[in-house]
Amino acid sequence: MLEIRSLSAGYGALNALEGVSARLPAGARLGIFGHNGAGKTTLLRCLVGAHAARAGEVVLDGEPVRPGNVAATVRRGIAFVPQGHNVFPTLTVAQNLATAGLLFDGGFAGEVLRIFPLLEERRGQRAGSLSGGEQQMLALGMALMTRPKWLLLDEPSTGLAPVIVRDVMSQLATVSAAFGTGLVIVEQNVPATLKVVEHCLILKSGRTVFEGTAATLAAKPDLWEWF
Ligand code: ATP
């Protein structure tokens, strides 16, 4: 269970998040939407312990996530794929996966390569020479090397062609089904994300302005277009 309890956070005088809450049972799939500056990335950073909350807390399986030690949070089962291309461009695909597995025994590579056969095909290729979609797949594979219970993704569709976005979303659904991994996906592309997540939050100026099921939100495009 991943709990976000009345979380408030900010930067200097700015309040980026104010009293955001959610309770996610193991394996849940949450989408977080909202305009630029709504506080979505700040929420993800608090979840992984990369940013200290001003009030409230994040609790994983009954124990608070303590800020300031992201490696400890990753070991507890929360992996974070930040926005952008999070691969080592001069290393090969196999070396990238091995590097990501250093925190653990590295024995997860076989399962990751089974889920993403394309990475197996490209294992000797330098990551910098992969397409944007392939790099996103590798970043996802690297996050999975840490055997996460929860996978946090900050705008995984950014910079990808629509057909590749569909691939990335279906890979996320596959991963969640195969490993029981919970997903927390921050996205601008609401329709693509609604195909994968079950629950949604919309943030506006750091506050929750909608909380409900993906089906409810899918039936109300005017709602998410407005925010
Ligand atoms: P985006 O879609 O643009 O990434 P977001 O919803 O993820 O937006 P955040 O990045 O969490 O929003 O930003 C929330 C607020 O905090 C914004 O007003 C932003 O300008 C501010 N902010 C974010 N990071 C910092 C920082 N390191 N220092 C100061 N202010 C920041």
Describe this structure in words.
By secondary structure, the protein is of the alpha/beta class. The chain has one domain: P-loop containing nucleotide triphosphate hydrolases (Rossmann fold), CATH 3.40.50. It contains ten helices and ten strands. The strands form two sheets. Strands 6-7-8-3-9-10 form a six-stranded mixed β-sheet, with helices on both faces. Strands 2-1-4-5 form a four-stranded antiparallel β-sheet, covered by helices on one side. Strand 9 and strand 10 (207-213) form a beta hairpin. Helix 3 (93-100) packs parallel to helix 6 and helix 6 (132-144) packs parallel to helix 7 (162-179). The chain is globular and about 45 Å long. The two termini are 28 Å apart. The model has no long low-confidence stretch (mean pLDDT 91). Bound molecules: adenosine-5'-triphosphate (ATP). Adenosine-5'-triphosphate binds at residues 11, 14, 16, 34, 36-42.
What are the salient characteristics of this protein?
4-stranded antiparallel β-sheet; single chain; binds adenosine-5'-triphosphate; alpha/beta; 10 strands; 6-stranded mixed β-sheet; 227 residues; Rossmann fold
Give the structure's gist in a few sentences.
The chain is of the alpha/beta class and 227 residues long. It has helices spanning 40-47, 70-76, 93-100, 109-115, 117-121, 132-144, 162-179, 190-194, 214-218, 221-226; strands spanning 2-11, 14-24, 29-33, 55-60, 63-64, 78-81, 150-154, 182-186, 199-204, 207-213.
What distance separates the N and C termini?
A: 28 Å
The amount of helix comes to 25-40%
Count structural domains: 1
Report the biggest beta sheet as strand number plus sense, adding barrel if it closes: 6 strands, mixed
CATH class designation? Alpha Beta
Coarse morphology:
globular
The fraction of residues assigned to DSSP E strands is: 25-35%
Please name the CATH architecture. Answer: 3-Layer(aba) Sandwich
Number of strands: 10
Number of helical stretches of at least 4 residues: 10
How much is the radius of gyration in Å? Answer: 17 Å
GO molecular function, one term: ATP binding
Protein name: High-affinity branched-chain amino acid transport ATP-binding protein LivF
Domain ABC transporter: 2-227
Keywords: Amino-acid transport, ATP-binding, Nucleotide-binding, Transport
